[in-house]
Specification:
single chain, mainly beta, seven-stranded mixed beta sheet, four-stranded antiparallel beta sheet
């Protein structure tokens, strides 16, 4: 089974950038749809961006033009480049890998954007 470990979170001022990384164990990661989600206290976890095994990408409207998702199957990794960050982007960001049978989550990484 795939295991996911996120890194790259932190604190940044509004307008700044961060790059999140998610490293997966297991070569079958390349067969999974990989994605990033985020959650703030008291709210449901929401989709940020996904990339399928074939490279089809989908973004939430609120990050279009600011965030870029990418994956490197040779490194079993998925990335989220976040630019023009806003205070409302503050959340715990989770990496996800899913197939028809599984949906696997990382432990999350905190992103804090100050105004």
């Amino acid at each position: 089974q795939v295991r996911l470990v996120e890194s790259g979170g932190g604190s940044v001022q509004a307008g700044g950038s961060l790059r999140l990384s998610c490293a997966a164990s297991g070569s079958i990661f390349r067969l999974y749809t990989a994605g990033w989600y985020r959650q703030v206290p008291g709210k449901e976890r929401e989709l940020v961006a996904t990339v399928t095994s074939r490279g089809t990408i989908d973004y939430a409207e609120f990050v279009k033009g600011r965030f870029t998702i990418s994956r490197d199957n040779a490194k079993n990794s998925v990335y989220l480049e976040m630019d023009s960050l806003k205070p409302e982007d503050t959340a715990v960001y989770y990496c996800n890998a899913r197939s028809a049978s599984y949906s696997i989550w990382g432990q999350g990484t905190q992103v804090t954007v100050s105004s």
